[in-house]
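User: Round two. Same drill as before: sequence, then structure, for each protein.

Assistant: Same drill it is. First protein:
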Amino acid sequence: MPGQRAPRLQAHLADHYGVQVDAMTDLDVGVWRVGRADGPDWVARWFPARRPAETVAGDAEILAYLAAHDFPAERCATPEPVSVLDGRPVLVTEWAEPVPREHRREAIRGAGGLRRLGELLGRLHTLPPGTGAVARPGGSWHHLADGLPSAEITAASRMLAAAGHLFPDGERVAYDALCAEVAGLDAAEGLPEALTHPDFVLANVVATPADIVLVDWAAAGRGPRLWSLAFLLYAEGAKDPRRVDGVLSGYRQHVTPTGEELDRLAAIARARPLVLTAWAVCTGRMTPSAALARSAETRALTESIAARARVVLGGSR
C-alpha cells in the first residue's frame, strides 16, 4: 500500500469513528500506527481487496476470543473494528506500546525469552475449541491465501506457474524442479489441529514493559498445530540450533508433539521457507537456480532441527 494512501486512510478513520487523528506512521506494507489526539493510539491494517470484509471480521472475532481467554495478543480498538475503504477492509486494533528499540532484546529475555514464546504457542494450541471464525480453517500466510496451509502451497504453485514465461531457457530446468518441489511440500494434513497463528515468530512480537504481545493474526484459524511450531523452530534454529531447545522447553509445558509430528517435522519446517523462496523468484529477487541451492540448504537445516527436537523431546511418543 503506497505511503501516499495514508492521508486518505487518516480521513476515513476520523470520519468513520469520529476520532481526531493527528499522525499516521508506516509500520509495514498496509499497516500504520494511528496517532490520536483524543485517546490511545491505534494500529490500522488496510488489507487488499482479495481479503473480503467478512474474512477480516473473522480476524477481529478471533482477537475477541483471545481477549476473553486473557491471551497476550493485540486487542480490537473498538466494538466494531472493521470498516471498508475503497473496497478494501480496514481493521483497527489497540497500539501495544513497546519498550524502546534498544531495550527490546532485554525485555524479551526478561519476559522469558524463547521459552516464553514457545510456552505461549503451546498455550494457544490448548485453548478450548471455539465457534464461528475461531473454528475456520487457518494457518496460511495471508499475503498469499487464507485457509489451511494447503491453500498457501497451492497459491505458491499458481504464482510460480503464472511467472513461468519470465525465465530464460537456461533457467527452465531449475524452474521446473522448483515447481515440483513446491507442489510436493508437506501441508501437515492429517496431523492434530488447534487454533493457530500463521506466523508465530519474533517478528510478530511486541515487547511491552509487562510481557510480550503477539500481533498480526490475519488468516489465523484452526489448522495443523505443527505448521506454526515448525516455522518457529526454523526461524530460531536458523540463527542458532540451541535456540530450538528454548522454544521446545516452553512448548512442551502444554503440548508434547506426537511421534508422527516429529517424523514429519523436517518436511513441514521447510515448507514456509520454500514458499518465501518461490515468492522471491516470482518477484525477481532470485533466480530459480539460486532458489534450488537455497532449498537444499534449507533441507539440511530443517533435518538437523528435527533431529535436535527429537533429542530434546526424548524421541517419539
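Second protein:
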Amino acid sequence: MSGVVISGTGLFTPSESVSNEELVDAFNSYVRKFNSDNSADIEAGKVEALTESSAEFIEKASGIKSRYVMNKSGIIDPETLCPRLPTRSNDEPSILAEMSVIAAKQALDQAGIEAKDIDAVLVACSNLERPYPAIAVEVQNLLEIDGFGFDMNVACSSATFGIQTAHDFIRSGSAKRVLMVNPEICTGHLNFRDRDSHFIFGDVCTAVVLEHKDVAVAKDNFELLGTRLMTKFSNNIRNNYGFLNRTSPEGVGAKDKLFVQEGRKVFREVVPMVAEMISDHLAQNEIKAQDVKRFWLHQANKGMNDLIAKKVLGFEPSLEQNPIVLDRYANTSSAGSIIAFHSHKEDLETGDLGVICSFGAGYSAGSIIVRKCN
C-alpha cells in the first residue's frame, strides 16, 4: 500500500451542448455547399466529392450521442465550424485556468480542505492554450496556493500520468497534498470538416486531490495500491500544430495542424496493448481481474472500452463494472477516465477495488489501481 489517497474529485461541465443531430446538420450543410461550389472539378475527377454524415453513423461508430462545448454557435455554423472564444487580456484569468478553479474548488470541498493546504498544483492535459507562463502556476495564483506548480502533456493519458506524479511527490515527501487538474477544450483542435472525426471531442475540466492518508480529513477515500505508465511511439494519432509553424508558412492551415488519426489502426493496436497492461498490472499486485469492482476507462470509444474490459475480465462487462459517460460528454481526452471515476464511485463499499485507466496519443497509457477505504 502506498499511503497515498484520492480524497476529492471535481467536475466542471460547460453550459452548452451539441447533439449529434445538430452537428450533422451543420456538417452536411457544409458538404452540400462544398460539392456544389466544386461541382465542375468533381465531375472532372480533380476533386473528390465529400460524403454527408448521419447521427446514426456517429452513435454506431463511437457510442457518442452529444457533447458539452465551451462555444456552440461557432461549431454549428456551417460557415465557421469552429468554436469562437474571444481572446482575453493578460490581466484576465485564462479560460483554462478559470475552468480549473471551478473544478478544483469542488475537489477541495469533497476532500474537506482549503486551497492553502495544497503544496503543489499539476495541470495535466492535451490542449494547453499557451506554453508559458504555466496554466498550473496561474491556477496556483488564483487559488492563493503556496508551493509550486507546472503543466504536463501526455495527451489522453495526462491525468493518470499526473496522478502517478502526484503520488511520487507525496511518497518522496516533496508534498503532502497535490491538486491535479485536467482542463480540456478539445473542440479547439478538432477539424469539424472531417467526417471521420468531427464528432469525437467535447470540452470539460476535472480535478483530483491526492494526499498522504495520515493527513487526509475526509472519509471514503481511495487508496492507490499501484500505478503503471507506458508509452510507445505511434503516428496514428497526431497534431502537428506548434510554435515552429511560422517557420514554414506554406503549411499554415494544413489539415495536420489539427487533430488527425488513423482510427481503425488505433483500435487494433491500442485495445490489446491496454488490456495486456491492465492484466499485467493486476497480476503484479496479486489481484484477480474478477475481484475488480469497477473499471473507469478512458472515454474515447464505447467499443474500445467494452473490448478492453472483456479481454481483462474474460467476459462481457456490465455497465456497472465498466461505466460509460462518453455518450453525453464524448471524448474529453485526459479528463474522460476522471469523469467516469467522479461520477461512478460513490456507491462502492469499503474494500472494493477499481482501476482508473487512460490511453491515447503517443501511444500512451496509464493504469491506477485503487481501493475504497474510510
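The longest helix spans residues 263-284.

User: Perfect.
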